[in-house]
Structure formats: structure tokens, C-alpha cells
């Protein structure tokens, strides 16, 4: 983003006093574009509300900016885009320690399989044919009940690249800054008029050097004085949403947390110390909380098998993955960014269910007599 662009947005913010409207901070001197709040409706009239909404026209334009910028950024770093299947029998959320969701089973042409909860394993596979790294933007499916920050079907920007966790953190930091800059350049004026504030995008772009970084232990110490910020599950701990948000308030609005408890993250994340107590996993918090999840992978089959046993995973369900590590050992790291969560932050919105152009929330479980949704 040019210095002239950031200067323009800095000047436009002077003298504005945000107020509270429908639970969101906006500038009272401009018109605020709001979503039609029709995501849970199976009424045919919702179709007109969607298609006639300036909110979704704006979201559609942001989709295009994200797609083009992702392609340009990844290509500039030597990554290749790969076409990958949306079904898999190798899920990243097995029923085991470190998994926080359920896979979605389907039958396709008589074959029992799953809808992909992530392209991570396929992208690790892809790094063996595209050694400079690879990326996708595709749907992901998880057996989660939608709420203000979760969707059962969502858009996932993912990449796997050669190198360790520090290389990954640098890549992702540059990526989200590139997205914020491209959005300011391509839609900054519209966003300022529609939502009243783009200062958060400017601050991300203008952050010099690294975002704030803490180990998980350091982060826990930062918020542990407040009840309900850290959830303890025997041998492992994790942040609650309250904890994530308090951490951002006390440290920075853009903060990396890494080296989580090993049993709190999935088995495929590399050990962060010799004892295996921590993992080389890293989450980037901004906006509503965790927007990017990432980590370094086990480079060898030996370490992978140790982690599989530690997490209580059935090794037979990952036979090909282990064999790949044996035959083609490679140090890679990867990330997944929830595009819908990223757009919540861009739009300064508080309900992820308003983000998808076509909602899959609250659809009838049985096939309806009349199909009222696209």
C-alpha cells in the first residue's frame, strides 16, 4: 500500500468519535452498511434480501481481492497452487487428544469417506511434488454447530512451505499485511463509508517488523489473574475466547502465541522441546481471536510415530502419511487462515454467520419439499 494511501486514511480518521450502533463501533457521520441478517432463514424471501444487499456486494468484492492477493503473494514467495480433492480418508481432527472438532462423513459414488476438514495433509503431500511450497483456498467442513465465531462449512486459505516455524510466522505476517494493504487500496474508501472505520487495517499494514510474540507459557502468565481465561484439561491447557481477547488487550491487537502444550494440539505438530511437552505450533490472534492456526510438522517418521502414540491416534488411519515421512523426509510448516474470520475483522463485524455469500447455517436436515436456497 502506498504511503499516500495510508496518509489519506490517517487524515480521514482525525476528529471522528466512534459511537455504539447495533453492538459495533461506527462513525456516526457516515452511512453504515449492515448485513440483512437472513442466514438462518429458509424463507424464499431471504433470497431477495441477500441478492439486493450492498453488504454481500461488498463481501463479494473482498473475496476477489483476497483471491488475487493470495495468488500474487504466494507466487512471489515461490509457492504453487495445486488442485486437490475435497474428500479424504485422512482427517486432521481424529477422535484423539489435540482435536477440537469432528470430521464430516459422506458417501460419494458408494465410497465411504470424509469431506476435508483441511487440505493440510494434501498440501504436505504437495510439497513433495512442489518442493518450493504450495497453497489453496478451498472449503473446509467440520462437525461444529455454527455460532458467532464458528461455521460448519467455511473458506480456508492454507499453505505448506519448506522450513520451520519461524519461517512460517514471517510468511503469514507478510501475508495478512499484504491482504490488509490490498483491501485498503482496492476497497478502502467503500469500507470507510460502509463500516465507518478502516484504522485497524492501516495499523496492521503500518506495523514495522514482527508482530508481538509470546510462548504459550508467557501468554498464560499474562492473563492467568483473570478467571475463565485458561481452560485446564489434566495434562494440557488452552485459551478460552475470553483469554484470547484479554491477551490482545494487554499485549497487542496483533499477537502470535507459539509453543502450546503438545497434547492441546494435533499429533502432526512437531515437538517443541526434547521432552515433547510443547509443540511447535503457533496461532495468530487479531479481531475476534484466533484467525490463523499454524505449525511446524514432524520431519521424520520416528518423531511422528511418537506423537501418534502420545495423542492416542490409530496409526493405521495414517499409514500413507507415515510412509511419506519415511521415504521423503522434509521439514515443512503450514497454516490455515479462516477467510470468514479474517473478513469479520476487516468489516468490524461480530457474527461470522453473516459472512458467507450463500449460507449453509440452519438448513433443514431432511430434503425439503421446496428448495429455497441456492
UniProtKB/TrEMBL annotation:
GO molecular function: aminoacyl-tRNA ligase activity; ATP binding
Keywords annotated in UniProt: Aminoacyl-tRNA synthetase, ATP-binding, Ligase, Nucleotide-binding, Protein biosynthesis
Domain (Aminoacyl-transfer RNA synthetases class-II family profile) ranges: 72-364
Region of interest (Disordered), residue spans: 1-38
Transmembrane segments: none
A biological process term (GO) from this entry: asparaginyl-tRNA aminoacylation
Keyword Protein biosynthesis on entry: yes
Stretches assigned to coiled coil: none
Gene3D superfamilies: Bira Bifunctional Protein, Domain 2
PANTHER family listed in its UniProt record: ASPARAGINE--TRNA LIGASE, MITOCHONDRIAL-RELATED (PTHR22594:SF34), ASPARTYL/LYSYL-TRNA SYNTHETASE (PTHR22594)
The name this protein goes by in its record: Asparagine ligase
The organism of origin for this protein: Amycolatopsis panacis
